[in-house]
Amino acid sequence: MRNQNSRWAIILTQAPIVVLMWVVGVPAGEYHIGSGLVCAQCHILHYGEGGGGEPGGPFPYLLSHSTINGLCLSCHDGSDPTAPDVFAAVSMYDATGDEHSAAGYFAGTDVSSDSAHDLGVTDLVPLRTPSTNIALSCASCHDVHGNGNYRNLVSDPDSSGSGTNVVLGTDIFEGVAPAVPPTQEGSVAAYKSSNVGYRSNLSYWCAECHNLLETNEDGVTPAHYKRHPSDVSLDVAGSHTDPSTWVAGDSLGFGAATGDGLEGVPRVRFQEATATDYSSAKTVASTNQVFCTSCHLAHGGKYVSCAVWPYKVLDPDMYSPCQQCHNQ
Ligand code: HEC
Ligand code: HEC
Ligand code: HEC
Ligand code: HEC
Ligand code: HEC
Ligand code: HEC
Asked: Which of 25, 34, 219, 256 sits a CA distance of 20 to 30 A from 321?
């Protein structure tokens, strides 16, 4: 990514927008906030009065479940048709041409998986210094009572004191918003992966925890970088990329579906730093940037390392995303 200075410039220029949104009472988050924060979805005030919830209560904070992951997944595992399904196996989006939501899905709770962020397992955070162990829950990344961020993302997931805001309508755009009150069709349309366009800050947000990637460290000339960079556009002068192939979509890296046995995958996601709305965020151009979720799904998915394609195995798709941008 860029350097620290530009990072702070971004945060500072956005701060007044966030403040303004709170003042006029229009939270950028959409659900589990404001009038969409329904206490009874998660809390039972006097456990035992027949109000549902997991057997064995009452539980801390008057929650209806013994763990936060169990609570959130009681709806987000596909059993509530209006709640975006983030737990394997996911079929909610099948009819839309998308396999999953923007963040993809978890493999399980209290089990280690190499294809998703682990929930409830104490793990070392990779690409982080100093090394830190953490047992992830939904609340590590999402504010359970909502906030001004896109998807209620917590601003400071590693509690280091700095923090990154990711604001809907500024950093990230949705083609269609979810229905109010929630409906199945409304949630399928709003949360499917292709309904989201990206401009900025999500990579910085991931790098709150994976802080070795916070800056794109320089490599030794003629190489540009030490690790694969993020938030860099394809058209930088002297770049080791192939912007015209990216724009035309005509290398062998482009294909109809991932994992269909034929070389080529659908165009990977990108960021557009000049975007002002959904349509400009989705416009293919040589100014598009590679970012963390070009290659990864935030929750996880089918493939090793939360990758959007089978990378570490012999598969016709194994280098397809690389070929979309580099065409070697
Ligand atoms: C009683 C069911 C239920 C429970 C329990 C529940 N959710 Fe949700 N959640 C929903 C529904 C329904 C939606 C989609 C509503 C909409 O956007 O119109 C939603 C949406 C969301 C969104 C997207 C919100 C946005 O503004 O973009 C996030 C993130 C989320 N839930 C996280 C959580 C987390 C974390 C927990 C546990 C602390 C949780 N949910 C518990 C039903 C539930
Ligand atoms: C989507 C699920 C969800 C909803 C809806 C929800 N809560 Fe919570 N609440 C939680 C979770 C999870 C915790 C425990 C947080 C933790 O352990 O960090 C919590 C903790 C609390 C606490 C104790 C800790 C604190 O933050 O002060 C209070 C009080 C509370 N909730 C009140 C409310 C009220 C009032 C509402 C409705 C306006 C509400 N909650 C709606 C999930 C929810
Ligand atoms: C709250 C801290 C936190 C945040 C924020 C976070 N991660 Fe992670 N990440 C972890 C931890 C802990 C692990 C190691 C355990 C595991 O595999 O789930 C991990 C593992 C990973 C892995 C390796 C997964 C595997 O199974 O091998 C990838 C890839 C990854 N994260 C990418 C991301 C991306 C992309 C984002 C932003 C969308 C992100 N992370 C945000 C804590 C975080
Ligand atoms: C490591 C951080 C992390 C953890 C842990 C996490 N989320 Fe998310 N979640 C994200 C990010 C980042 C997004 C937005 C991804 C995007 O737009 O590319 C998201 C998006 C969502 C959405 C919107 C639909 C979608 O998938 O895009 C829901 C609902 C949601 N998360 C629920 C949950 C629930 C429930 C849990 C716990 C079972 C959870 N999340 C745990 C980071 C996390
Ligand atoms: C161009 C594609 C690409 C981009 C962009 C990218 N990654 Fe990765 N990442 C990968 C691949 C592929 C792997 C699997 C193994 C490897 O080659 O390192 C990986 C591995 C990881 C791991 C696991 C490392 C380990 O030791 O287990 C983490 C964590 C991670 N990435 C986080 C991120 C974050 C955070 C960002 C954005 C700041 C990011 N990645 C950007 C492709 C990418
Ligand atoms: C969405 C576009 C995109 C994807 C997908 C992508 N890259 Fe890149 N990659 C870039 C950009 C942009 C740069 C920075 C270009 C530069 O400065 O030379 C870069 C840089 C690199 C570099 C370092 C160049 C240098 O001089 O330091 C290598 C090596 C590389 N990518 C390999 C890969 C591989 C392997 C994959 C697939 C696993 C991949 N890339 C996927 C856009 C992408």
From this structure: 219
Same domain for 324 and 183, yes or no, is no
The tokens for 163 are 């923090």
Question: 138 in helix, strand or coil?
Answer: helix
Among 180, 212, 244, which residue terminates a domain?
212
Q: Are the C-beta atoms of 264 and 317 separated by less than 8 Å?
A: yes
Q: What are the backbone angles phi and psi of residue 151, rounded to the nearest 5°?
A: 55, 25
pLDDT tens for residues 207-245? 999 999 999 999 999 999 999 999 999 999 899 999 999
pTM: 0.95
Tell me the residue type at 129: T
Instruction: Print the domain residue range for 280.
Output: 215-328
Q: Is the CB of 145 under 6 A from ligand 2?
A: yes
Using an 8 Å Cβ cutoff, are 149 and 28 in contact? Answer: yes
One domain for residues 149 and 16: yes
As a 3-state breakdown, the chain gives helix, strand, coil percent values, each rounded to 5, of: 30, 10, 60
